[in-house]
Amino acid sequence: MGEFDGGVVTAVSSNGTYSFTKPNRDSVTLLAGLGVEGDVHAGVTVKHRSRVAQDPTQPNLRQVHLMQEELFAEVAEDGHHVLPGQLGENVTTRGIDLLALPTGTLLRLGDGGATVEITGLRNPCQQINHFQDGLLKHVVGRSPATGAIIRKAGIMSVVREGGTVRPGDLIRVELPAEPHRPLEKV
């Protein structure tokens, strides 16, 4: 199992009601097997409305949404001003290419034991355009080389070990055993 360090939590966000954006907090508490304490998307089974409508018994593979702060600078080049929590993420990071990590990677957030396991990519929806018109095309696109869909709106994870997460916490990355599986939408 490989391991390297290098990231930091820049913001944490949660919301107890269904809303696209999530207010920043001084800290969030991760609950093993559930998600962010008090967040509307916490739970053992799916909480996203469209997924509940399809099958409310599906396991919740989207307990904690992480997004790399570097995306905000990228979309700013196209005139979009985005701040942490505004795209619905729970944990905003800097210094780790979250999108390049394989499925099953563990992220240890801070020194309090909080650990999430990456389950896949967020599949962004039309709500992003309702937040800022035209933003969706900057977080979902196609590879010029292969035509494959590229999703940049963060990654989803489940909580393996609970704990408190705060801005400034360091992130330790533990890669799963090889062969690595690339992230797919969840």
What do these coordinates show?
The chain is mainly β and 186 residues long. It has a single domain (3-174), classed as M1 Pyruvate Kinase, Domain 3 (Beta Barrel). The protein is 12% helix and 32% strand. It has 4 helices and 13 strands. It has helices at 49-54, 70-76, 127-131, 136-139; strands spanning 3-13, 24-25, 28-31, 35-36, 64-68, 91-94, 106-109, 115-121, 140-142, 149-151, 155-161, 163-165, 170-174. The strands form 3 sheets. Strands 1-6-5-11-8-7-13 form a 7-stranded mixed barrel. A 3-stranded antiparallel beta sheet has the order 4-3-12, with no helix packed on it. The chain has a two-stranded antiparallel ribbon with strand order 9-10. The radius of gyration is 15 Å and the shape is globular. It starts with a strand and ends in a 12-residue tail after the last strand. The mean pLDDT is 91.
